[in-house]
Batch of 4 targets.
Target 1
Amino acid sequence: MSQVHEGHRYRMRLRLMNEGLDGFEPHEALELLLFYAIPMRNVNPLAHELIDRFGSLQGVLDAPREQLMQVSGVGANVADWLNELSSALSAYARLRMKDRPKLDRLRAAIGYAEQLLGNSEHEQLWSLSANASGYLMHSQMLAQGTQQIEELQVRQVLDGALRHHAQTLIVVQRRLPTSMQTNQQDIDFTARLSSLLGTMGVYLMDNIKICGHRHSSLRENGVLVLKPATAGLSEPINPDILQHWLDD
């Protein structure tokens, strides 16, 4: 392997260590994977060709062995590696989901939120990013204290939803007794957030306020009405979540 290609691989791996995979283009991520199957060749052109042929990184990983081997430069070892990697990633994703709470009902979301908030005396606002079946992907505190919550921008919630590949999202607020009442700011914030998330293919399931064992849900109060997401979904949303969110 030439020093140019060797240096390129080193820089790619260093970038992965420093930045993580989120900043990589699909062909660059595929290139990293191909490093392990093809140790002595520039695989950048092959990564581009595979993405062009199968449409996406997922398309490459899901492609049958025989179709992969029709691409020049892909032998049996490379095709087997990509197929085995796809199976391993799918199995890993299933195992991860088993350890995550399923927030497919309001009562489940409230139960999880009460554990998350604990005995905190501060007002807080969290976003709960979940997949199409309601399994939690990530929980993130976005603001703490009345002023921070009031100054929170919709963009902060959108950024978190994108970063964690949310397909459903729940907003949870820990509030003081004096601020449990739904106000116009709550309504405007929720309406704008729901609309913008919809353009990303993400459903805003609810905006829930919690104070001790009291709760207030904008879905339950009829303020938030689910609308179809306007962007294409990478995975169909489980209809049970949309229809039975308020069921006991």
Target 2
Amino acid sequence: MSQTSDSNAIYLTQIHQLKNLQKVDDEIHEIEKSLEKGPKELEKVEARFAQVQEIRNKIQDKLDHMQKQKQQLTRESEEEYERQKKSKDKLMATGNEREYNAVTREIDNIEKSAQGRERELTAIQEELNTQNAMLDETQKEYVDLQVEVESLRSKIEKNQAEADRSLKKLRKRRTECTQDISRPILLRYEFIRERLEHPVIVALKDPICPSCHISVPPQTYNDLLRGGQIMSCPNCQRLIVSYEAYIEDDEEAKQQAAIEKELERQKEQASAKTSHRKTSSGRSAALDKDYNKEDRDEVEFGHTSDDEMDDDMRMVNHIIETDLDNLSRSAGISDLTDMPETTGLTDLGGDSESSDKDDMRPVNHID
């Protein structure tokens, strides 16, 4: 008995040690996950920032090109204005009609060209206004993203520094936790931790692993309930223990488990009572149904008319006569009056008057 108690105490101690180690690994796992979120978020913001920057550069390039076009058209328009002015001065100095007509045609051509350039300048200016508005909007988003990127980088650097300090302390605690765990169990723990997602040790309330959600064989589950050694899930290879053994060192969890167990017991009792009431009700209804059926049969029989009863009796007599006739034919009897001697049934086929006469014959007394 003492040996069994000592073995169980060692088993519970091993579970306690593994739980402490896993708590430290949980904290390390959470810190490492939080550190992964920062760079991923920064990567998304930087990608958006690069996209906005590219759009901004394209708009700027387009604006630069359109500004050059505008400047070129403006110079050409100014040059045409000067030619037009000279042509008008020349027109005033013409001395004959031929020169006058030539100068007039020249002025008309200059005016037509100027009108075309004026329309081009107007279209370019409208597009410049549109592109400038887009640039202003993009520039605002560009600046906001630039600030966000710088802020995230600063935050990540700060979090990284704090995480490094916390991880240093946790790794020291982890080393202390591993010193008391037996080497075979620790090697199994480390092997699983390197290859599978957290957690490593799990508690089973029923024959289903809470990590891989696959049923554990009944024999394995029975061995698990008996305790005595740390077992592995046949499917995911995680370390498994019974829930009762897992919470043995946690009074609060034990109290909560007791409350849940009591609630489940009460629920089962209530369900059993409900089922019993339904069964009793069903039987009572069935009996009532049979009784009602008998009553209906009696009522139906009681309502049978006299004519119907006479018809039934005539049918029965007909059947009896038919059977007797068939029987007499098979026995070679021509008349039913001979049947009593043949069959030995003296009560059938006799004449009532003959019987009465026989009964009235005198009896000879012998003195």
Target 3
Amino acid sequence: MSQVKRVVVAAVCAALGIVLPMLFHAVPGAGNVWLPMHVPVMISGLVAGPASGLATGLLAPVLSSLATGMPAAPILPSMTCELAVYGLVSGLLSAHVRTGALARDLYVSLVGAMLVGRLVGGALQALIFSAGSYSLAAWGAGYFLTGLPGIALQLVVVVPIVVALERAGLVPARYPAR
């Protein structure tokens, strides 16, 4: 994929990272539960690589906060770090995981990024953003229980979207037909 296409993917996904949360936040509390900003960040990493995923993860929350006030300023730094890790790791794993099956590659990369992002996010909360007042219970509740519907949403929609983009010829095929 050309560098121009990677930038376009990152820009479109960053824009989706602004629009999708606006839709979900129409229902109070739905953003924390459904994690709508995670979806375009993961797609960017899986489709366009680690640099684009990282850029989307950095840009989407900052631009969304500036444009809509969501995420709120106190949450913005930790959410930006978390999303940057999701985008970076999904892109890194996508570049290196090759099982011979597109969907399997994507799910391994997606789940790996989801786990690493949550681990890093929890570590940053414990060490920097909420140092001294963050517990394992808070991490489990915040990163897994509250966001369980969002985790399910990511597992249900991200891989089919990436597969559809590839089948439509909008992104290069991982396993070109011989």
Target 4
Amino acid sequence: MKTIKILNYIFVAALGFFAVMFGINRLGDKQSQFAGDTTLYTEEYCQDIIGFNDIIPLEINMINGKIANINILDNKETPRFLQKVTDAKLVENFYGLTPKEAINLEIDAVSGATYSSNAIIQSVKTRMEVYDKEANPSPWTWQLFGIIGCAIVLIVLSILGRRF
């Protein structure tokens, strides 16, 4: 009987160890999550980010985990303000950046189009935060899953051990 309990504990410990190692192993896979081309849209994620008149929807094209292009989609902004943003090449500051680099980019608003440029900057950063979280789920989730799984297995084995 004692031997079965000891084997149960060893089994649960091994299961927990593998769950933790799987989570840690996922830390090294982050760059592979960004492989390929992806088109992202900001509208769904940036409803509370308002320019001068309304939201400014963007299309962000990613190639191999870096921002390749940003297109300003149809919006209700005053055209002359958006022209200032376009002339200042504001969105080009994000080109070639990874999501984390884009999130941390320090960039000033365009003078004379402050609301519009701040909305564009914030929309890009917000969408990159969402994309980064989707592409790189926390490895600690797997570790928590492993710990809960181990606890369930330990409880089941303890119940079965008492019956036999």
